[in-house]
Each structure stands twice: as structure tokens, then as C-alpha cells.
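## retry 2 of 3
previous attempt timed out at serialization; input unchanged, resubmitting
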Amino acid sequence: MSFSYTYRELFSIRMFHDYFLDLGIVKFSGPEMSNEERERQLSLFDWSSYLDIQPTAETRKKLVNQRMRIFRDKMSFKVLVSVNNNTPDEPFIAISPELQLNFVVKITDARFSEYSAVHLDPVHIFRLTNKRLPLIPLFDAIDHIPTIIDDEYLLNKRSTRILKKYYQVPPEVPIIGIISIRMRVSDEAYSITYEDPENSGIQLIKGTQFYMRFENSSYYWKYQRKDIAEHYLTEEKYPLVRNGFIKIDPEDLDPPIPSGYIKEGMKLPNPQVGLFEKTEGEIYSVIYI
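## retry succeeded, writing output
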């Protein structure tokens, strides 16, 4: 005899990264991008190209015991749970309100730090949680506003070491973040489950959605001539983007590119990830012309 189980989304984390979703200087999150452009950008996006999220060893056991499973699509990381067929909001196996699931975040793209505004490393990881903790902002789940991963979510070296030890993450494993999701928290808007009003003690599923966003990095652009040791700088920083094109006027550079060196109608190229130069503490994106 075979059995089939019905699964429902317990919670999800929707992913965003401006480097992949912006179109030139047009922000994915801004009003200038049309709905058609936004849909096209989303069709090209896949968060697994730069991140991986895995449960800790302890959470793996909890997932099995609670009949939960992980599901990933191009936009989201999801945890599903088996539910009763007649009551789809009720887990097949009762969930304790104190249940907490923990996940480690790893980079899958070696150049992630070059196009991301926040600079992460194995000794300064970020912490996301829906449980209110001192000094750490909450992982937002209200009004579809993404949590921007910035310095406010970073832990110091000591806290990183303690947290990795607590969650049994080997010191040599290069994680950049830990996500902790508790079923019930003091702020109900951030909870994953709620108590059945007709059956005290039974936890029902809310289907909470979290939103996680990385901003893209911006640099001064340095146009370096190939024939002579001369270069031209932008007077402001511009973002790195995967898609679209940012138009730079040769006369707006410092100094301006001499007339005749660039053919009429030719567009100055945009930089590629990986070509950088550090001078007097400033990082420049280098473009050879």
C-alpha cells in the first residue's frame, strides 16, 4: 500500500539582488521600470547563481521528524510541511510554537563580493531572524518590503565564532550568514504559525513570506587607454549591473577623452566584474579602451 502526502508552504524567503534585477541605472525597485521590464528581469533571475541555503545538521533532523521538506525555485527558498487533507492549515504532525529552524547561507559565485554592496566574509557573517534579539533588526515579513542585507545585520568576529559553534558549523566552512526562523514570536506579524482559535494548543499555518535583498556595489569608473599611460575618470560612482547599459558622455570624464580618440557615435563600454584597481584607498572599475 502506498501513501501520498499533501504539502503546503510553511514559509518562504523571496530573493532579490539589484546587480541582476536592475536595468542599467533603472532600479528594479523604482517607479521608472515598467511592469514589462520587471517581468523580463525576473524571468532572467535565479538566486541560486550566487547563493545556497542549507539546513544545519540539527534542523535536518527536525525537518524529517516534522515531515517538512525544502523547495527551491528561481525566486524563492521555501519550507513545505505535510498537512491534513481535510484541514489544509493544520500540519499533519503538530508543530511546537517553540520550534526553530536554522539555515546556513553560502556563496556560489566567487565574485559575489565584487558586485554586492555589503562585504561579507567568514568571520563577519550576517544574521537574519524573525525573533527579536538585542542589536539585530528583525527579518522583515510586513508589506512585502525586502530586508536589505547591510552592516546592521553583520556580526562581529567573536559573535560569528560563537554562533558557528552553537549551530555546529565547522570553522573551516565558509558561510556568510545564518537564518533562524521560529514558529511563534512576540511580534505576531513575524510568526510562522498561530493558535487555532477553536482548538487551543493546535498551531495552524500562516504561510509567512520574507523578503531578502542585496544591493549592487557602485564604483568610480576608470577608462584606461591601451596605447599610452593615460586614463579618464567618472566624476561620480556608477553601479555594476548584469543587464542594461549605462551611457557615459566622454566629455563628462575627468579629464575629457580627447576628440578623435573615440569614433563618433561610439558608446563607451561599461565595466565587467573582476576588473578593479585600488588607488589611495579608492576602488575603481577599470575599462580598457
